[in-house]
Design goal:
Layout lengths: L3 H10 L9 H10 L9 H12 L2 H5 L7 H10 L3 E3 L9 E4 L12 E9 L2 E6 L7 E5 L4 E5 L39 H14 L11 H13 L10 H11 L8 H5 L15 H7 L27 H5 L7 E4 L2 E4 L1
Antiparallel strand pairs: 1-6, 2-3, 2-6, 3-4, 4-5, 7-8
Helix pairs in contact: 1-3
């Protein structure tokens, strides 16, 4: 008999296995050469459980894998690869990168998923501190997962393509797991609906976290004074939930898109503070006397009260309208 539950049952039987060589590495070395007896064995464990449970075709495509990158690449080539953790479920083969690069070529480790709850992915992994143990993992270190096409057994897996929905589809996703470019699934659809509602992003609700969704998330982060990284994590989720309830004061589109006049280095307020502190006193009558070399309506007092400061860059300074007055900046 084969299926997802048999696969996990054999993984549970390996819990407590430690050191090298061990039952798993010895079995793999017998099939593929003695060099594997003391090699890193996380993917050997997955291969071993697949053979023992009768799932070798579903999990390993009829091959033996000790190299995690090749295994992930095979899932991708077969169209069974999923980025990030959106939709991940019991029985999936999950791949990790401790450097958080989210690249298949940088994968370090692999395990099998035993459950998912509140954004935490629970696994059984071989070669974790040189032992087979249960672990709780988060989205930051997960590159993606492969979904084996298990045969149905007593405890059937959820139908393909169905992902756990957290709350209503009209509510903001929880932010854990983190959604980023390349993510896909129901949680991404929820995010797209919310962004369309809160800031009229005009996103297609297709469940794909592409460049337009990334741009919409960055716009939302900018408006709400968050770190602008294009990722939808817990902090962005909190702000989005508040925005849905109408309790968040966002920056206006005008402030975000209004072009800023260029600053001339000699007139930049910061480096000239020492100068302004000594030369802020306008000459007598500066507030009423106009300068023919400057635009009509701009008085000496509007030029920071100091003509001498602007003499060195009169042609480079540009006026900027602030309220009902013009200033040189």
């Amino acid at each position: 008999m084969s299926g997802v539950e048999d696969m996990i049952r054999h993984a549970e039987r390996s819990l407590g296995t430690t050191g090298r060589p061990n039952t798993i590495t010895t079995w793999y070395a017998t099939r593929n050469g003695p060099a594997f007896a003391r090699a890193p064995w996380c993917n050997m464990g997955v291969t071993y459980w697949a053979h023992r449970s009768g799932n070798v075709d579903a999990v390993c495509f009829g091959k033996d894998y000790a190299y995690t990158i090749w295994h992930a690449q095979r899932f991708r080539a077969r169209g069974q690869w999923h980025v990030d953790v959106a939709g991940i479920r019991r029985g999936d083969i999950v791949f990790f990168d401790w450097d958080e690069t989210n690249r298949i070529g940088r994968i370090d480790h692999v395990g099998i998923v035993t459950g998912v709850k509140d954004g935490v992915v629970y696994t059984i992994e071989g070669n974790t501190k040189d032992a087979c143990k249960r672990r709780a993992r988060y989205a930051d270190t997960i590159v993606g997962y492969g979904r084996p096409q298990y045969r149905a057994d007593g405890a059937k897996a959820a139908p393909a393509g169905r992902a756990p929905v957290v709350g209503s589809g009209d509510l903001a996703p929880p932010g854990a797991p983190t959604l980023r470019r390349g993510s896909a699934g129901v949680l991404v659809k929820q995010l797209q609906r919310c962004l369309n509602r809160v800031q009229r992003s005009g996103l297609a609700v297709d469940g794909r976290f592409g460049p337009r969704t990334t741009g919409a998330v960055k716009t939302f982060q900018t408006r709400n004074r968050l770190a602008v990284d294009g990722r939808y994590g817990p902090k962005t989720a909190v702000k989005l939930k508040v925005a849905q309830q109408g309790g968040l004061t966002q920056l206006s589109d005008a402030r975000l898109t209004a072009p800023m006049a260029p600053r001339h280095r000699a007139c930049s307020p910061k480096p000239q503070m020492w100068w302004l502190s000594r030369h802020m006193r306008p000459r007598r009558g500066a507030a009423t006397r106009r300068d023919a070399s400057r635009p009509s309506g701009i008085q000496g007092a509007d030029l920071h009260g100091c003509r001498q400061q602007h003499r060195i860059c009169r042609t480079a300074c540009v006026p900027r309208h602030i309220g009902a007055r013009w200033h040189y900046i």
